[in-house]
Design brief:
Order of helices and strands: EHEHHEHEHEHEHHEEEEHEH
Oligomer: single chain
Strand content: 15-25%
Strand order of the largest sheet: 2-1-3-4-5-11
Helix content: 25-40%
Number of strands: 11
Radius of gyration: 19 Å
Structural class: alpha/beta
Distance between the termini: 26 Å
Largest sheet: 6 strands, parallel
């Protein structure tokens, strides 16, 4: 069976370098190339040298369209604005697209849904196997316990992370709300400061910590009178996200056009996608 040709968008960044290392060491796939934004000081350098694995004979470029056209799948952990452009190019080329970028809003999801009419797209705020199992457990726990248990979601990331709460924390809140048959927009409590009054029954609270080089910690707390359940996932290395993304790229290659989640990739079954509507186009 031919190797799957995978391209990395944003290949000079921390996550991009991790992806380059992972693709080059994963059986069944081959690194087709990597790109960065125009003006990057890394342009023209060998991708392997940038990633710290030695020269591999592929130079970092800036032509996204050319790379997409040469790939079976591309992996993107860049920015929400860039993913709109990338999705359109992927749809034009018909290759698979794996998107791990966080901070997406309704217009970004609309662009993905449109591109998914022509390409297989796997989108998730977190590509980790463990986190996706945490999402499934969170939804099921919320459904089983009911509103006698308050739900609080705590996340911590490195000091350089620019969005808050994390995309994973928001996804956990959404699956918890849906487990209770509620709309997260109606029960989300994103900030508390000053005289807030007592906690409103049924709310899902979010708390955000930033500091050091923490890759990503997420805890979902179910708290009732006299008892508390805590579901926690802690990421120690970005390689777990890269491994999940590469697994998704291999899975998506050859799939029918559609917008999928990691639940599909991992065979967790229906009912716990990362975001409502993620199965558009299937």
């Amino acid at each position: 069976m031919a190797e799957v040709k995978i391209g990395v968008l944003g290949a000079a960044g921390r996550m991009g370098q991790t992806l380059v290392r992972t693709v080059t060491t994963t059986e069944g796939c081959r690194l087709a190339g990597g790109i960065e934004r125009q003006g990057s000081e890394a342009l023209g350098r060998d991708l392997g040298e940038i990633a710290g694995i030695g020269a591999i004979g592929l130079a970092l470029g800036a032509d996204v369209e050319a790379l997409v056209a040469a790939c079976d799948a591309v992996i993107d952990f860049t920015t929400p604005a860039a993913c709109v452009v990338h999705a359109a190019l992927v749809a034009k080329a018909g290759c698979a697209y794996v998107l791990g970028t966080t901070g997406l809003t309704a217009p970004h999801f609309a662009a993905l849904a449109e591109a998914a009419k022509k390409s297989a797209i796997v989108q998730s705020p977190n590509m980790s196997l463990g986190v996706n199992l945490l999402m499934a457990l969170t939804a099921r726990t919320a459904a089983a316990l009911g509103e006698d248990f308050d739900i609080e979601i705590l996340e911590m990331h490195h000091r350089r992370k620019v969005d808050a709460p994390s995309g994973t924390a928001l996804a956990l809140g959404e699956v918890a709300a849906r487990g209770r048959g509620r709309d997260i927009a109606e029960v989300s409590q994103r900030a508390r400061d000053g005289m807030t009054g007592p906690r409103r029954s049924g709310d899902i609270g979010f708390a955000v910590l930033r500091g050091g080089n923490v890759v990503g910690d997420h805890t979902v707390i179910f708290a009732a009178d006299d008892e508390r359940i805590e579901l926690t996932h802690k990421a120690a290395d970005r390689a777990i996200f890269a491994r999940g993304a590469v697994k998704a790229a291999l899975w998506a290659t050859g799939q029918k056009p559609g917008l999928y989640g990691m639940a599909d990739v991992l065979g967790l079954g229906d009912g716990f996608p990362e975001r409502s509507g993620d199965r558009a186009g299937r």
